[in-house]
Design goal:
Radius of gyration: 21 Å
Order of helices and strands: EHEEHEEHEHEEHEEEEEHEHEEEHEEEHH
Largest sheet: 8 strands, mixed
Low-confidence stretches: none
Distance between the termini: 23 Å
CATH topology of the largest domain: FAD/NAD(P)-binding domain
Number of helices: 10
Helix content: 25-40%
Number of strands: 20
Structural class: alpha+beta
Shape: globular
CATH architecture of the largest domain: 3-Layer(bba) Sandwich
């Protein structure tokens, strides 16, 4: 089977990998380089964690995601995962962390609840005046996103996948199926996968997808000298719904801790507005001002931007349109499921699984069975 994949982010490259390892003839196209530094997937790292608020379906999928990454690590010959642990803070008003605790209890995911005193004792660099309690998990960590994408490209190249960078796709005909390129060339295939991130809506127009590009800014910070080693070993911090409202990634790769804001901007054009302003960087940096002890001793090292593609309910979209499959709406939390999404999508395209339920599975439906079986499964 010939499959053309539009988009060389984590979803496109993972689907291409899963298809190629199953014997399909695959062509990957991207308007930029492969991997594309302007894509949603291109930053130094992305988080994978079990706490998911009240979204039990996605929390349940995290175990599948880990299994899928293990399959990919075996193919790549090394792991691009760095365990960190997870610390989620809860304030006076019950919110996301309380919902996460209840969901983890339901699913039987190991975790512990820390009092404010315990949080202060174990993590003395955090100001806990407004923290009531916290959720702590040994599980969770950072996926080295840029390394994963680069290794996937090398793997695809070794499998004979055709990689067409700097190739603009201007029209999708899902019935043929075929693609019209910016050069006028028409590329035919047996199936087409569109995973073009924030540009997907420009290619898939009738009917339009219920997604919105969202420009997001993250910053890398410099801790005080005596805390640099501490920040190499701290867990990821999820401070969601509080006045400070940020998430942090520890210094797993020597570039310093990363601070981000999961609040969606729902603005911006993905082909423009790529360089954050000083004001934007400072605004994100200030999110942790009330949480970090001696914040005035921290320094802003670097600000970067990326674009999410947001669905109103933050649910992933997989649509079959004639002979094309559309993957979209990953809403800033899709990278952790990249390998799993690729394997599941490839299985359906190649006829190894019934497509019924794939869209519900991707949308986090709690009733959908696992699509990435345990290692000892015979399915």
């Amino acid at each position: 089977m010939r499959v053309a994949v539009v988009g060389a982010g984590i979803m496109g490259l993972s689907t291409a990998w899963a298809l190629a390892r199953s014997g399909a003839t695959v062509t990957v196209l991207d308007q930029g380089s492969i991997p594309n530094p302007l894509g949603s997937s291109c930053d130094r790292h992305r988080l994978i964690r079990y706490p998911y608020g009240a979204s039990a379906g996605y929390a349940r999928r995290v175990e599948e995601a880990y299994r899928a990454w293990d399959i990919l690590w075996k193919d790549l010959g090394q792991s691009y995962y760095r365990p960190t642990g997870t610390l989620a803070l809860e304030g006076a008003r019950a919110g996301w962390t309380t919902d996460s605790r209840d969901t983890l209890d339901l699913l039987g995911v190991p975790h512990s609840v820390l009092s404010r005193h315990e949080v202060s004792r174990r993590f003395p660099y955090l100001r806990c005046d407004d923290v009531e309690w916290a959720l702590y998990l040994e599980s969770g960590g950072a996926l080295l996103a840029q390394g994963i994408l680069t290794a996937l490209r090398q793997d695809l190249d070794s499998r004979g996948v055709t990689l067409r960078s700097q190739t603009q796709v201007v029209e999708l005909d899902p019935a043929s199926p075929s693609l019209r390129l910016g050069t006028g060339e028409r590329l035919e295939a047996d199936r087409i996968v569109v995973a073009a991130g924030p540009w997907t809506g420009e290619l898939v127009t009738q009917p339009p997808l219920p997604v919105q590009p969202s420009r997001q800014v993250v910053v890398y910070i410099e801790p005080p000298p005596e805390l640099r080693d501490t920040w190499r070993h701290t867990p990821m911090i999820l401070d969601v719904g509080s006045a400070s409202g940020f998430y942090s990634v520890p210094d797993v790769d020597g570039h310093g801790p990363k601070i981000g804001d999961h609040t969606f901007s729902l603005t911006g054009a993905p082909s423009q507005e790529r360089d954050p302003t000083d004001a934007e960087g400072q605004a994100v940096f200030q999110l942790c001002a009330n949480r970090l002890v001696d914040f005035e001793r921290y320094r802003l090292r670097e600000a970067r931007s990326c674009f999410y593609t947001v669905h109103a309910d933050e649910r992933f979209i997989i649509q079959e349109r004639d002979k094309a499959w559309i993957l979209a709406g990953f809403s800033g939390h899709g990278f952790k499921f990249g390998a799993a999404m690729g394997l599941a999508t490839a299985d359906v395209i190649l006829g190894h699984r019934d497509p019924e339920g794939l869209a519900l599975w991707a949308a986090g439906d709690e009733q959908q069975p696992a699509r990435i079986p345990p290692p000892d499964s015979t399915n």
